[in-house]
Amino acid sequence: MNPFTYERAADGAAAIRLVSDNRQAKYLGGGTNLVDLMREQVERPKLLVDVTALSREIEAREDGSVLIGAGATNTAVAADRTVRERFPLLSRAILAGASGQIRNMATVAGNILQRTRCTYFYDEAARCNKREPGAGCDAIDGVNRIHAILGASPSCVATHPSDMCVALAALDAVVHVQGPGGDRTVKLVDLHRLPGGRPDIETVLDAQDLITGVELPALGFAWRATYRKVRDRASYAFALVSVAAMVDVQGGTIRDVRLALGGVAHKPWRAWKAEEALRGRLATRESFAQAAEAELADAAGLRDNAFKIELAKRCIVATLGDLIGETA
Amino acid sequence: MTSIQDAAQSLLKTAIGLVPARWLPGGSPDPLMQKHGLIGAPVSRLDGALKVRGKARFAAEVPMQGLTYAALLHSTVARGRIVALDISAAEAAPGVVFVMTYRNAPRMASPALMNTKPKAAGTSNLPVMQDAEIHWNGEPVAVLLADTQEQADHAVTLIRVTYETAPAITDFDAAKGSTRVPANILGEPPSIERGNAEATLVQAAFQVDCTYATPAHNHNAIELHAATLAWEGDKLILHDATQMVNNVAWTLSQIFGIKEEQVHVRSPYVGGGFGGKSLWNHQILAAAASRVSGRPVRIMLPREGVFRSVGGRTMTEQRVALGARSDGKLTALIHTGTAAMTPHNECPEQFSFPARHLYAAENIMIAQRVADMNIVANTFMRAPGESIGTFALECAMDELAEAMQIDPIELRRRNEPAKDPTSGNEFSSRHLTEAYGRGAEQFGWEKRSATPGARRDGEWLIGMGMATATYPYYRMPGGAARIRLTADGRATVSTAAHEMGMGTATVQTQHIAERLGLAMDQVVFEHGDTALPPGSMAGGSSQTASIAAAIIAAHDAFKAALLKLVGNDSPLAGLKPDAVEARDGGLCSSEEPDKHETYVSILRRAGREELVAEASAPPPLEAQEFSMHSYGAQFCEVRVSEITGEVRVSRFLGSFDCGRILNAKTAASQFRGGIIMGLGLALMEETHRDPRTGRIMNPSLAEYHVPVHMDVPKIDVIWTDIPDPHSPLGAHGIGEIGITGVGAAVANAVYNATGKRIRKLPISLDKLL
Ligand SMILES: Cc1cc2nc3c(=O)[nH]c(=O)nc-3n(C[C@H](O)[C@H](O)[C@H](O)COP(=O)(O)OP(=O)(O)OC[C@H]3O[C@@H](n4cnc5c(N)ncnc54)[C@H](O)[C@@H]3O)c2cc1C
Ligand code: SF4
């Protein structure tokens, strides 16, 4: 690890100033990802600006929405009463991730901006376009069991590893951002980028942009929702494939549906095509299967991860089946 | 093992004409063999409280004046040479004391390979940092010392190395194309032919012929490999995390060209060894850097460093073919295959050992080969060979039972041999069918459906499987023990043995107390230090029997010495050592127990402050007379998701036959721990090596999976507890047997649940989709 200085920001504006003044500064959440990457020499900030104390509140609003401070820990969010009552999907997804100790440290913003687990990204000896644009990608023909099947590019086949973000994607969450030019909001589904030719640019945020919170818009009451995660051991492993699903079914017909996948792409993957295929259809296993096929029509497997295509389809069908029951 | 056998052979000559050991035919029986008192009792580990309080001092915690902290730089290519090296930035970094590369490393002899010399501890005989050559991806190319660990870790990243690469063999699939026969497999012949197995196979009424594959595994003991060391003049003081203090001392003395006595190794506590804590580059490099810099050094490999510079279990491809008559008797048993190795070590992974001793096949063919690769030297890892050899053999037995439509246990019963099928020796103690029976009953084996896929709970398919567990009995030659009795009637027993968390010290304290007729708090067991009488290495599940044999020998000497002191006024006057036994803090006549005198009284009357007796264990001749093994039957119930292929083990039971159990609590932990490690082997453990570069891509516990709590169900362990009359204390090894058979029990249960045979470990969900 390189030497660095550590500072605690007094408020958002001060944090932004510190990071704007020092091109090698980074915001620090719980450090569970950033500090690991510093140990591996992947990240080499000269200054860490601790922003965990700035916004830890979880605000339950009258209109049914919730605003979660960016510094709230994963544990606090998952355990929060309002979150559990209004958005149990989010609690479930968070609790499916990492370990109790890590969730105690990890923050909401840090979880959103955590970087890929691609093992070549972690290994300085490997070529990686994300670490060093133009260097090449050793994962594409290497050990790539955990890599992407959707939205990948010839430059990068990495995945975004978060569980929480998959739920946020399904919940239409909105990310609150404070930047040098003022405040703005970005939909979670628009925050992360696909790799394209620049896998090093992972989000639409600038380095100085500070995430201050995440807003969960109010839901109607009719939604049924769940999170299913498939991994290589019973706990403490990243998702090979995960599914966040919400359905609104009436009289055997799917009135509305929201579906997001984890472990499959460079970003939390909102399954727009599957949603489209399901909306207004009868809730049958056949329509679930058709929707899954539609979503994964463009999926492509690599040396080790082709199984994820079938796995994702099965998980979509099974998760919808569990939520809706066997209508037909 | 070669050295063991050599040593045993040479000792055999000297032993002829001596009284046979107590456990050999003709020896006078050990009264403790059957005695139930402290031996067998579920005594909690004596070091437990110390460890919970953080008071047990491990190798990386020993304080030293002026200590420097080491960091290693590892090569990023598998083969080639260093053509440029720039250490200037590193040398200029804050806190840096010394940077060592092949250019300024002292001249050192190459390590002697383990098993080639009685006290050799080397895991590879490659020269260590003596030239520009690179032999594996991850080989240390520089060692840096700094005032703090953080400074060292940072500065080492500033070293720039340029390599010229050479073609390397880093893909097992490619390496398998050119194999060779190793000289021997731990002293045993690499191949055995009894009759004509291939010809019989094709004529057999029932046949299975399958190929199994097992991946590489890395050592991941909780305690990282570590050493704290200093030179005092020409003497090296080394606090190491090792399972072989004497071997490390001897081998280092050869490397540095000094006398064995000039290396003092201490290792009282080790946080898990599993075969991985021997002599690797890090101790050698730290000692060399310390010698040149004149500063004490602490080296603690980070987890990645362990992956890169410490070897583990190697990859294998195995063929098992079985032919049987319609009555279920095996007519042909073939177990052949290839293990990945390097040209610089001797660890061919004895996967064919179980097949040599387990079943009464009329025709047997065993053949092991190795494929050389440019990778870190592989090494022993809990039941090397047997863990993955039983995976192949016991899966094949299940496949045969299925083909014959008979119960898998019944098939094994019908092939229970009367004598060892390859050596022809009598078994010293084999109650495997009893272990099957008791295990099956307690597990509820009769509830297993013979038809795969017959039981389900929602999306979860439920299945049961079983497999035989087996591991050889070893006792290492060369161990000695010293008993020191003091005027207060207390005793200290010393031998350079190893406590790696198994309960060794606790069990030997129980043994000594019982043998001396003292309470446990009146005896101290000293271990883990080359200043003590030489111990044997803690490997091959041999330590308990090895130490026990040394203590029994020392006790014989102790009784003789004590009886010389008693004089004519003692109730013991005139008694011979054979006619007395220990009781109530003293000795008594075996015939007339009332004739008793306490140790305190004997020493006081003789005007002695202490009495010291030391002796070496007799050579392990029993293992040449008899076929000696630990046995067991592993039973497993799994649930497999029909949708995702996820496998969850829902119940597990191990039923063991390992001679006499010396401590019910520590033994249960060993069995359970072995089984848990076996669940990892079955379901998830796998070193991901990039076949193009030979680089390990998951050198961290985040990506290298071992079971977490949720992967481990309740595990029941039971045992026969029948003493082997031909081993010290009637005991067999228990440290490694637990992992054997587990892979097959899980795979067979998965088959029973799903109808799918998975012949390649680990049984990850993609294989079941
Ligand atoms: C062994 C292990 C297993 C894990 N398993 C899982 C799993 O199964 N599922 C899962 O979802 N996750 C898992 N994780 C990842 C874990 O969820 C993340 O490490 C964690 O959420 C990151 O949060 P943090 O606060 O520690 O972020 P940090 O490490 O502090 O920061 C991460 C990034 O966010 C940036 N950042 C932090 N706060 C802000 C802010 N307010 N504004 C702008 N930028 C900010 C930092 O600059 C940095 O780039 C695992 C991690 C580990 C180490
Ligand atoms: S997949 Fe992406 S992160 Fe991984 S090595 Fe390739 S470019 Fe780097």
Notes on the structure:
The complex is a heterodimer of chains A (328) and B (769). Chain A has 328 residues and is of the alpha+beta class. Among the domains of chain A are: 5-52, Uridine Diphospho-n-acetylenolpyruvylglucosamine Reductase, domain 2, CATH 3.30.43; 225-327, Enolase-like, domain 1 (2-Layer Sandwich), CATH 3.30.390. In chain A, 30% of the residues lie in helices and 20% in strands. In chain A, helix 5 runs antiparallel to helix 9, helix 11 runs antiparallel to helix 12 and helix 12 (285-295) runs antiparallel to helix 13 (307-324). The radius of gyration of chain A is 20 Å and the shape is globular. In chain A, 54% of the residues are buried. The longest helix of chain B has 23 residues, at 543-565. Chain B has a domain at 36-52 and 477-620: 2-Layer Sandwich (Aldehyde Oxidoreductase, domain 4), CATH 3.30.365.10. Chain B contains 19 helices and 31 strands. Chain B has a seven-stranded mixed β-sheet. By secondary structure, chain B is α+β, with helices and mostly antiparallel strands. In chain B, helix 18 (664-683) packs across helix 19 (742-754). Chain A binds chain B through residues 1-3, 39, 41, 117, 119-120, 122-126, 138, 141-143, 145, 230, 232-237, 240, 307, 310-311, 314-315, 318, and chain B through 76, 94, 150, 153-154, 157, 459, 643-646, 648, 683-684, 688-690, 692-693, 695, 697-698, 700, 702-703, 705, 707-711, 764-766, 769. The structure holds flavin-adenine dinucleotide and iron/sulfur cluster.
